[in-house]
Write a structure and sequence with these properties.
Elements (H helix, E strand, L loop, with lengths): L2 E2 L19 E2 L2 H12 L5 E5 L6 H10 L9 E5 L8 H11 L10 H9 L4 E6 L8 H10 L3 E7 L8 E5 L17 H13 L10 H10 L4 H8 L7 H9 L1
Parallel strand pairs: 3-6, 3-7, 4-5, 5-6
Antiparallel strand pairs: 1-2
Length: 247
C-alpha cells in the first residue's frame, strides 16, 4: 500500500485549488486511468460517476492539481452543491465567480462568459452536478465555443451528452478474510489513519480485525463512511461501531 500525497504545492499558473490537509491512498489505479482519459486530446468532457461519499471530488481535485502546468489559463474547481437556484444564468454566474471573471456593460452575461472562454486553455472541475442535469445545455455551448477548455465533472449520474466520457468511481478495496494483510487494502488503512487522528494511541487488536472488515463491508468501502466510522473509536468498540452501522 502506497500513499498518495496531499495536493502538491500549486504552481504559478492560475487556479483556485488549495492544498488538502490529508493524503489519500489506494487510488493510484483510478488516478492513472482518469488522468489518461483527461489527457486524451479527443476527451473534452469527463464525468466521474458514483454515489455520494465515494471520493469523486477528491479524485477530481488531485487530477486537476497534477495538471495545472498543462493548462495555460488555469485549473479551477466550481463547487455546485451550494447552488440551490437551478438556472442557466445562476450556473454562468457561479462558474464565472470561480474563474474570477467579472461581467461588464449591458451585454447578456452568458454571451460575455462564452466570449471570455473562447480562447482559453483551461480545465474546469464542476463538482456535484447531479442536481443541475437540466442545465447541461450550457456545457454543450462551452464545448462548442471554447475548443481548448476541458471539463471534469463529478456527479451521481451521467450527463448523457454526446461526446461525454464516463468513469465510474467505486468504493475502496477491503479484505474478505481476517488473515489478510490490512496494509494492502485502502479501506482498513483509511479507517486506522482516521482512528489515530482522534486517538493517537489507537492500535488494532487481532480480535478486532474481523470487526474492522465488517465495518468496511457495511459502508461499501466508501471513504466518507469509513472516516465517519473511525471517529467513533474514542467512544465505543469496533464491534459496537459495526453494530451501530448495521442497525
Amino acid at each position: 500500500m502506497s500513499w498518495l500525497p496531499a495536493l502538491r504545492s500549486l504552481s504559478s499558473h492560475p487556479t483556485n485549488l488549495t492544498p488538502q490537509p490529508t493524503p489519500f491512498l489506494d487510488r493510484e489505479k483510478e488516478l492513472k486511468e482518469i488522468g489518461e482519459i483527461i489527457d486524451d486530446p479527443s476527451c473534452r468532457l469527463l464525468t466521474l460517476v458514483g454515489p455520494s461519499g465515494v471520493g469523486k471530488t477528491r479524485l477530481a481535485l488531485q487530477v486537476g492539481a497534477e495538471r495545472i502546468d498543462r493548462f495555460r489559463h488555469g485549473v479551477y474547481c466550481v463547487p455546485l452543491a451550494p447552488l440551490t437556484l437551478t438556472s442557466t444564468q445562476f450556473l454562468v454566474f457561479t462558474i464565472a465567480d470561480a474563474i474570477q471573471f467579472s461581467f461588464y456593460g449591458r451585454e447578456e452575461p452568458k454571451i460575455q462568459f462564452l466570449s471570455y472562454l473562447r480562447e482559453k486553455e483551461m480545465l474546469l472541475i464542476l463538482d456535484n452536478f447531479e442536481h443541475l442535469i437540466e442545465e447541461v445545455a450550457l456545457l454543450v455551448e462551452i464545448l462548442k465555443t471554447a475548443t481548448k477548455v476541458k471539463m471534469l465533472v463529478t456527479s451521481q449520474e451521467r450527463l448523457n451528452l454526446k461526446g461525454e466520457w464516463v468513469y465510474e468511481v467505486k468504493g475502496m478495496e477491503y479484505p474478505q478474510r481476517p488473515e489478510a494483510e490490512l496494509r494492502d487494502y485502502g479501506a482498513p488503512v483509511l479507517f486506522l489513519e482516521g482512528a489515530r487522528r482522534v486517538d493517537p494511541s489507537f492500535q488494532i487488536k487481532p480480535d478486532d480485525i474481523s470487526h474492522l472488515i465488517r465495518i468496511c463491508q457495511l459502508v461499501g468501502g466508501l471513504p466518507l463512511g469509513i472516516e465517519l466510522a473511525s471517529a467513533w473509536v474514542c467512544s465505543i468498540s469496533l464491534a459496537e461501531i459495526a453494530d451501530e452501522i448495521e442497525q
